[in-house]
Amino acid sequence: DGDGIAEYQDFIDGTVADCNVSGVPDACEIGIGASADLNENLVPDECDVHFRRGECNDIGAIDLADAIYLLNYIFEGAAAPHCLDACDMNDDGHVNLADTVFILVSLYEGGAPPPAPYLVCGVDVGADDVTCEEYAGCPLSNGWEWMILIDHRI
After folding, report:
1. pLDDT score recorded for residue 87
2. By C-alpha distance, which of 60, 131, 144 is closest to 95?
3. Which of 72, 124, 138, 153 is in the most buried spot, having the most CB atoms within 10 Å?
4. Cβ-contact 87, 73 below 8 angstroms
5. Do residues 94 and 130 make contact, with C-beta atoms less than 8 angstroms apart?
6. DSSP-H helix ranges across the chain
7. CA gap 149, 154 in Å, rounded
8. Is the N-terminal amide bond of 117 cis, ω within 30° of 0?
9. Residue 62 and residue 100: Cα distance in Å, rounded?
10. pLDDT digits over 76-119, tens only?
């Protein structure tokens, strides 16, 4: 009813966010600690798109092809990656040549690895405007979905 207090009718109307369809408003889940919100975007982490930093081309490995993909995007006008956050390899909030240099030094010169999430899927905990709209390399971002997958295989 627009009074700022989440009520049953607000759920029916779709005016209260409940991304994981738990029947509890996202803000309440975060507030009571039932859902984490590490990147403080007011969306439970299980509802955010999960990705692996450095895997810019989203084909399954972090390698030279990711650096080439990013260079083509930056300098050749190739299509933008669906997950720019995966291409922000140094997590400075910008996708640019420094990211290509960072991953190459990391892979071939023994430099520092990219910040998390790097080898495992996760969300970006940094506060910046670089986003991740979709990422096929981590299709199951919610722990419950993993449990359902495991249950079906048993």
Report:
1. 96
2. 131
3. 124
4. yes
5. yes
6. 8-13, 26-32, 64-76, 84-87, 97-108, 143-153
7. 9
8. yes
9. 12
10. 999 999 999 999 999 999 999 999 999 999 999 999 999 999 88
CA–CA separation, 86 and 116 (whole Å) = 10
Please tell me which residue, 140 or 45, carries the higher pLDDT value: 45
- Do residues 119 and 52 lie in contact, with contact meaning Cβ atoms separated by under 8 Å? yes
Asked if pLDDT for residue 148 goes beyond 60, the answer is: no
pTM for the whole structure: 0.71
The answer to whether 141 touches 51, Cβ cutoff 8 Å, is no
Task: Report d(CA 144, CA 5) in Å as an integer.
Answer: 28
Find out whether 85 and 133 touch, Cβ atoms under 8 Å.
no
pLDDT above 90 (res 64): yes
Please state, in angstroms and rounded to a whole number, the distance separating the CA atoms of residues 100 and 51. Answer: 18
CB 44 within 8 A of CB 18: no
Structure tokens at 88: 């922000």
What lies within 8 Å, CB to CB, of 81 at 6+ separation is 56, 57, 58, 69, 70, 73, 87
Measured over the CA atoms of residue 3, residue 9, residue 15 and residue 20, the dihedral's sign is positive
- 25: tokens are 């408003």
Whether residue 14 is predicted with pLDDT greater than 70 in this model: the reply is no
